[in-house]
Amino acid sequence: MKKIIYAVGGLFGLLIAVLILALVFAGSFLTNEFLVKQIESAINVRANVDKVNINLFSALSSVEVEGIQLAYRDNVANQGTPLSERKPIQSAVISIGKADIKLSLLGILMKKFELKKLVIEEPKVSFVMFESGGNNLTPLFKAPATVNGEPNPALSPEAIAERKKEEEEARAAALNEPSQPFSIKDIPIAIEMGLVGVKKGDVQVTMKKTGQVIKIQALDFELKDIDIDGSDLKEHNHIGINLDADVFVIGRSKNEAAKFILETKGDLQPFVVESGLVNPTVTYNVTMVEDSFVSGFAAFDALAGELPLLNQAGLKLDKLKEKAVLKKDVSFKVSYNNGKITFLDEPTFPTKNYDLQINKGSYLVITNNSHELKMGLLYDEEESKKSIAGVDAKIKEATKGQGDPKELRNKLLGNIIKGDRINIPFKTYGDLRNPSVQLGVDIGSISSLIGGAVKELIKGKATDALKNIPGAGNALKGLGF
User: Fold this and answer.
1) CA-based Rg of the chain, rounded to a whole angstrom?
2) What PANTHER family does this protein map onto (predicted)?
3) Does an H or E element contain 10, and which?
């Protein structure tokens, strides 16, 4: 056991020495040409780096790289053509304006990794999800078949042939899987970081199967106050996170279906204290900012189809199909676990035409659009009054002005009226693009009232409650019962 400890300690010491020597001579070899060769030898891309800056007064701790571009691999990359002989990349799949890296070597000598700064500025990513489930980025991060005009010495001839046919994805993914779960307790260094983040990011995700495009713009992402020590996770297990972004959803028709202006903050415990394994569940504080909107929400189309009875009674909910713009900022908490977002409280989103409340425990799986959202829709007071007035007018017309139409209307619609506003609880589930909807109101009792008690009224056998409503018989005949 002691020999193993000594061997690990000696290896760690050697790595520190190599790192120090590398950084001492960084100014002589860390050039854009060098970085491009390293990138193109490691992954299946054509790369470009415009400039590398090293601060001579802190050469051990500061590196700045500008103009990073990654594109689909071509013969220029395969042959290892010098940068001076290359034409500019015309259509990069991934580009980064600048990467700024600062770390403390003194911390490394003390077995403490102190990253002062790692900020990526103006990254641009074009991500395409194919109908088969694959994507355009996966092939970029495989080992290349050809390096500097020769077969990649890191690959066997069989592997090279498979790579050229793009059949190596599954095998590469399997080989990259760790034999056991990663535990921070296996890392013999405490990690303390200043700022890690992305500024002014721009990501476009194209869904080939649905024709949808998701654009993430003005992306600012920060990990800060990073303090992790695998030997003392109880006291050192913290990451602060800030994420601001404008998220646009573009439908197949090329129209904006939604815009979400998001501000997210969180204080995370990234590892489980007892085991050191990665914490599978993370909690975020999210603010959806005023002027975010939804247009053409499929669940509302399905909801409208579930309300023929209300339409028959003269209650119109046509405003559900209009663009809904958020009138003020709304803050709420969600948890994230393997692509599943779960609401931990019950936020209400006020818009011009209605307020939408999402119940605690509702969830959305962003990887496949499956969901179960329990919601309550409270129609705008002004629009509610117009719709209710339409029902009253229909009753009044049928009764020729006799009696109070409100009494009969309340018998018909009482369990979906809250104060003077229409209130419809419902659940939407399945595929978010083509959801199923289940009403939370007791439609059965309304049907019973109209289809049972009302017919009895027409036959002269109504209950005492309905008998006492002046003009009820004529009103219900006018409504078609």
Assistant:
1) 31
2) DUF748 DOMAIN-CONTAINING PROTEIN
3) helix 2-24
Among 458, 450, 451, 456, which Cα is nearest to 474's? 458
Q: At what angle do helices 381-399 and 405-413 cross, to 10 degrees?
A: 120
Q: Which residues pair with 284 in a beta bridge?
A: 334
User: If DSSP codes are grouped into helix, strand and coil, which group holds residue 393?
Assistant: helix
Cross-strand partners of 357 = 348, 376
Q: Could you list the beta-strand ranges (E) of 321-385.
A: 324-325, 330-337, 340-343, 348-350, 354-358, 363-365, 370-379
Q: What are phi and psi of 349, to 5 degrees?
A: -105, 105
Place of tokens 């074009």: 126
Q: How far is CA 235 from CA 189, 193, 227, 278, 348, in A?
A: 15, 16, 9, 16, 36
CB neighbour list of residue 271: distance below 8 Å, 6 or more residues apart = 183, 184, 228, 230, 233, 237, 277, 278, 279
Token digits of residue 350: 């006020």
| Mean local confidence (pLDDT), 241-269 | 87
Cβ–Cβ under 8 Å, residues 189 and 158: no
- Per-residue confidence (pLDDT) for residue 189, from 0 to 100: 47
Looking at per-residue pLDDT, the higher value among 441 and 478 belongs to 441
- The residue type of 237 is N
**Tokens at residue 415, please?**
């369990």
Condensed to tens digits (0 to 9), the pLDDT of residues 317-370 reads 677 778 889 999 999 999 988 789 999 999 999 998 889 999 999 999 877 778
Identify the three-state secondary structure at position 355.
strand
Least Cα distance to 394 among 407, 384, 405, 385 occurs for: 405
Nearby residues of 237 by Cβ (< 8 Å), 6 or more positions away = 227, 228, 229, 269, 270, 271, 273
The answer to whether the pTM exceeds 0.85 is no
Q: What three-state secondary structure class fits 334?
A: strand
Give CA–CA dist 392/74, Å, rounded: 71
CA neighbor of 304 nearest in space, from 279, 287, 325, 321: 321
Enumerate residues 6+ apart whose C-beta is below 8 A from 367.
339
